[in-house]
Amino acid sequence: MMDLNRKKSPEVKIATFHQRILAYIIDISVLICISSFILFPLHKSFGLFDILETYSYGLSGISASYITNLLISVIIFIAISYVYFFFEIYGNLSVGNKLSRIRTVLLKTDKNSYLIPVLIRSAVKAFPISNLADSLWLLRKKSKPQKLTEQHFGVYLINTGKNHLSDYLIMSLILYYLPLMTVFIITILSGDHISTVTSQSLNSSQNMDFHQLSAIIANNNFSFDLQLELGGIFLLIPTFFIIYTSSLLEGSVMGLAYLSSKVTLEHKVLPQFFPETMAYVFGITFAICLTIILASFIESYIRGVEYAVFERIWKQQLIRMVFLFSISLILILIAASIESAILT
Asked: Buried-most residue among 12, 191, 222, 232 (CB within 10 A)?
């Protein structure tokens, strides 16, 4: 916490819409993975992943046991989130805030104590739906937009520095690899409860030459990468769901391959793993840049900012997007070639 009363100068910049979005998505991702490890002893490790998986596979697999698992997972997640967001103010421990270069500050007033505002705000922010409702107050035309709880309790999110492309790449690395490695590690830890995978399950399809298989793999990977990128149109929400659906599958396969045969993992999975997954990381960064453009447009319209300011933003992000798309495509082609060479 800090006293903002001494900083009521034009130099104090309020966090932008896209900084808030990116910070919250990073925090939620961290909290889901932390919760999954805590849920592991209860054998409900992927309950939160399953929620996100319904985005791709629908509600057909829901059963009574699924709902029980879901409720326990959600309760644990909310409890952890409550503590996490409590210390967002008492210590500025938010990973998302640090990466987005923003800081939560609470105005010192004679009317309110610190504890009650922080407890209430933490409770609201721990529920993604209530946090979304709270965030609707940002759409009001104000020079310094605040959520409803922030306005009531004198809370501000201030901009502590300029974000660079490297910041967005780090965010993308966390968003992609953190859930993937969470599933991978938990799959290994729970190895006595799962079946094994053989190298035969990773063998190539017969009657295909190198070029045919490479084209099919590249096309599939590019389609997945394009889904990640276009999720930026909807402020990263589809991208977030796609990442977790993919992580549950890929992390489990990698964990099973590790338990079955480390040789299989080393020779049939890892060679193409890094170029392929880094292509997706660049694709997620592309989506982040797209989100920045859209969030900046909304913010500029609401706050009445000159078009020249928004123009500078979208031109900068567009150049980045062309670069990121090109690198992602190159890595996809490299990964497809490696995988085809292994499987043919």
From this structure: 232
Q: How confident is the model at residue 61 (pLDDT cuts 50, 70, 90)?
A: low
Distance in angstroms (rounded) separating the CA atoms of residues 231 and 118: 32
Collapsing DSSP to helix, strand or coil, 314 comes out as: helix
Q: Is the pLDDT of residue 193 over 80?
A: no
Instruction: Quote the CA–CA distance of 262 and 265 in Å, as a whole number.
Output: 5
DSSP secondary structure letter of residue 196: -
Whole-model pTM: value is 0.89
For the chain, what is the mean pLDDT? 85
Burial of 299 (0-12, 13-18, 19+ CB in 10 A): buried
What pLDDT does residue 7 have?
Answer: 45
- Among the listed residues 249, 332, 250, 242, the one whose alpha carbon sits nearest the alpha carbon of residue 287: 242
| Rounded Cα distance, 291 and 293, in Å | 5
What are the start-end ranges of the H helices in the chain? 17-39, 47-57, 64-89, 95-100, 115-126, 128-135, 148-153, 165-189, 210-230, 237-260, 262-264, 270-303, 307-343
What mean pLDDT comes out for the span 79-108?
90
Question: How many whole angstroms separate alpha carbon 153 and alpha carbon 207?
Answer: 67
Residue type, 133: A
Amino acid occupying residue 230? L
Q: String of b and e for 135-162 (b: at least 16 CB within 10 Å)?
A: bebbeeeeeebbbebbbebbbbbbbeee
